[in-house]
Design goal:
Shape: globular
CATH topology: Aminopeptidase
CATH class: Alpha Beta
CATH architecture: 3-Layer(aba) Sandwich
Structural class: alpha+beta
CATH superfamily: Gcn5-related N-acetyltransferase (GNAT)
Strand content: 25-35%
Distance between the termini: 20 Å
Strand order of the largest sheet: 1-2-3-4-5
Order of helices and strands: EEEEHEH
Helix content: 10-25%
Number of helices: 2
Low-confidence stretches: none
Number of strands: 5
Amino acid sequence: MKPEFENIPLVKAEKRFEIEFNGHYAFIDYRETMHQISLIHTEAEPELAGTGAAAAVVEKTLNFIEESEKKLLPFCPYVFAFIKKHPEWKRIVDERFEGYDKL
């Protein structure tokens, strides 16, 4: 994560995790059950393109999921690709996730 995002708090809203940077948002839509959090869609406002905001919200969200001791279902293609690039995060993916063996 780029240093400028390290101290920005992750906000868990009703249906999304989000960070605000310079008045703009990067967020991930999610669904949550007792034992799992499904990440559905990651997006950053156009003003944040190329800043690393999307990667920062993903990393902060993965940390949140790990700290909550829940399992991840990475349905979002961006999150899936992030985990492929950073395989240490596979540790929080639910082993029953259909694409688990492709991570």
